[in-house]
């Protein structure tokens, strides 16, 4: 019989409280055993509301608890690397929220530590465990759409709260790090290719100094991928993959609902007719599946859904977006 893993959660972040922890309830593979905050009362309050057995008044206390097997790290972006490293050095497996790092070179140290301490470490791109993205990848790789020549994406929301960490430059805020990572990651995931170069244009908020609107053109070697993101536009998201035979449309690609089936639409190009093929996926929660996949990687000593090597490749692209916008030139991704 498999050992039931004990997960600990670093911080009472909103994504942990509202999405990840509720999605991880009632599993035969694992339990949420503890949650930490720098404020013990807040940790206790959150633990009580979510049915978590143990609360900690510091992150280090949770990290060093021998009862904890796996740690979920949803701390602010600028704290991801340092606390993930602490977890690794304590012998814990770690699932860290995206973006794992704000500089791809920092990931090298995590890879070295991961291998030294023989633990599993992954980036929390829940889309990698979502059935709709697994199906999308299958459709593209099978040739069902024909040869893919172009990909388009869009992801936006509106948030102009100066106190929100997404709008704080020093904490790794801005659209590229928060949501630009998704069209980059899913394109790489589906195409199974790495872009060779890119050119971008970013508009920065004069008060926050974070990027609020951005457009990017990625060269995937015979496949052109474009996307636009914004933290100050009406909420919208979409991903389109254009093949020589058909077009694949994913209408809710990133915040996929957990209370209704996910749907993929296949078009043959004649939009004057209602001829879209609809592929309906079973109802699922991508955060639940992410936890299952990561737990199984630990229990069965398998590869995690999103490895540090994958993370490093994605981070290189995100860094290049800033470099291109600053130089107003194409940037090679090395």
Automatic annotation (TrEMBL):
GO terms for molecular function: nucleotide binding; oxidoreductase activity. InterPro entries: Gfo/Idh/MocA-like_OxRdtase_N, Gfo/Idh/MocA_domain, GFO_IDH_MocA-like_dom, NAD(P)-bd_dom_sf. It comes from the Bacteria. SUPFAM superfamilies: Glyceraldehyde-3-phosphate dehydrogenase-like, C-terminal domain, NAD(P)-binding Rossmann-fold domains. Residues 133-246 form the GFO/IDH/MocA-like oxidoreductase domain. Residues 6-122 form the Gfo/Idh/MocA-like oxidoreductase N-terminal domain. The keyword Oxidoreductase applies. Keywords: Oxidoreductase. Belongs to the Gfo/Idh/MocA family. This is Deoxyfructose oxidoreductase. It comes from Cyclobacterium qasimii. The gene is socC.
